[in-house]
Amino acid sequence: MNLARSSVKLFLANVISAGIQFLGITFFARELGASQMGVFFLFQALLGMLAIPADFGLRGAVEKRISEGESPGAFLSSAVLLKLIPLTLIVLGILLFRSWINSYLGADLAVWLALAIVLQEAAQLAIIVLRGELRVGETAVLNVARRITWVGGGALLVSYGFEVEALIYSLLVGIALILVWGWYKTSISLGKPSITHVRSLFDYSKYNVVSSIGGYFYSWMDVAIIGLFLTQAHVGAYETAWRVTTVTILLSRAVATTLFPQVSQWDTKDAKKQIESVIHQAIVPSMLFVIPAFFGVLIFSREILTLVFGTEFAIASAVLIILTGEKIFQSIHIVFGRALQGINQPNLAARATAISVCLNLLLNFILVPTIGIVGAAIATTVSFAMNTVIHGYYLSQFVEIDLPYRQIGWCVLSAVVMSGVVLGIRSIISTDNLTNLIVLILLGAAIYGLVLLSSSVREKVFGNIGIPSSK
């Protein structure tokens, strides 16, 4: 597998996907408002939280075992059997408590939630199998297709008078599309399951589930707690700000996604130097966009939310700044975390995640009732910073971590120069309309890119996206 090529392919697909999602959320936010968007985000939050017991870390275990190359069919069939029991119990639980779920969501969506969890788990398993086969680049188009289906189908239904149900129905169709298309592309056939394969999967998943919990908690726990103490409008504004920040981490995710199966394969060959080299070279590309994004959001946070989504979303302007700053920590963590799991140390990744999850939960319950959605953003940022530090400490026990401080410094300097120029121009050009805002943002991006191209980062990043291809 060529890591650079796969990273670029996945990144470009993620950019397209994020662009489609951004346009969709912008349209839906303007048409439906913050409260209806809040209902949809709460639906997604419950779906994400239910995925924890439904999967129990099996996705990571399947990717790890299949990437090792031994008995992939037997591992796949064993994973399918392991998934059936928790999925059945979850669906029955949803139906049993559907009145409470409907009340929490603010709409009668419990039955659709039960269907969504089944479709989601089957679809995600197909994606994981492709990754385990070292075919990460081939998964890129699937995510784009899902976004197109969600936005296109949702927009069509909204035009016919549907409200939040439009987003739910189109979401389900998009997941179903991934399910069918993903399994069609996989080349592994189901083998004969065995107790040995089940135990092997469980030995990995029992630790990996904690890391999975951390991911879902990180994505959805703040939203779920906001839903308990505040209104659907607060949920809608907060999650919209969150979705804006996810654009900045696209390259980081592409790098980390391609990193895991290759590190896993090198680990089986005890290729320590290659692992150390790829971690070092992955850091700068992972941070390439998050640093200038933070400086840009410092300047334009209120304008972005007000002009793009509507005035009722401006209550999350401080949230947008804090969460964009948090993405700097995430860009490093995403490399450390996948590398630690790739060298078969899910227990340590689980320990780090457990600590940060507990801190996140505690801070959310303290800060959300007292200072509102800003408290949720602070809780997420503090807990994830700690998670990054602990992951880095554990990873350093096995491989040498050589952070490229000089190149990171150039990224920061380029962002500072960008900010100074943009602030100077902003004093002349008003940002009270969307056109001027877009022009200033594009101008800032161009300045950042030009300064960066004149530095030592150019060869490291633009030569091969920071990751050498495997041989």
UniProtKB/TrEMBL annotation:
<keyword id="KW-0472">Membrane</keyword>
<keyword id="KW-1003">Cell membrane</keyword>
<feature type="transmembrane region" description="Helical">
    <location>
        <begin position="168"/>
        <end position="186"/>
    </location>
</feature>
<keyword id="KW-0812">Transmembrane</keyword>
<feature type="transmembrane region" description="Helical">
    <location>
        <begin position="435"/>
        <end position="453"/>
    </location>
</feature>
<feature type="transmembrane region" description="Helical">
    <location>
        <begin position="109"/>
        <end position="132"/>
    </location>
</feature>
<dbReference type="Pfam" id="PF13440">
    <property type="entry name" value="Polysacc_synt_3"/>
</dbReference>
<feature type="transmembrane region" description="Helical">
    <location>
        <begin position="373"/>
        <end position="396"/>
    </location>
</feature>
<protein>
    <submittedName>
        <fullName>Flippase</fullName>
    </submittedName>
</protein>
<feature type="transmembrane region" description="Helical">
    <location>
        <begin position="12"/>
        <end position="29"/>
    </location>
</feature>
<feature type="transmembrane region" description="Helical">
    <location>
        <begin position="41"/>
        <end position="62"/>
    </location>
</feature>
<feature type="transmembrane region" description="Helical">
    <location>
        <begin position="74"/>
        <end position="97"/>
    </location>
</feature>
<feature type="transmembrane region" description="Helical">
    <location>
        <begin position="313"/>
        <end position="336"/>
    </location>
</feature>
<dbReference type="GO" id="GO:0005886">
    <property type="term" value="C:plasma membrane"/>
</dbReference>
<keyword id="KW-1133">Transmembrane helix</keyword>
<dbReference type="InterPro" id="IPR050833">
    <property type="entry name" value="Poly_Biosynth_Transport"/>
</dbReference>
<feature type="transmembrane region" description="Helical">
    <location>
        <begin position="348"/>
        <end position="367"/>
    </location>
</feature>
<feature type="transmembrane region" description="Helical">
    <location>
        <begin position="282"/>
        <end position="301"/>
    </location>
</feature>
<feature type="transmembrane region" description="Helical">
    <location>
        <begin position="207"/>
        <end position="230"/>
    </location>
</feature>
<feature type="transmembrane region" description="Helical">
    <location>
        <begin position="408"/>
        <end position="429"/>
    </location>
</feature>
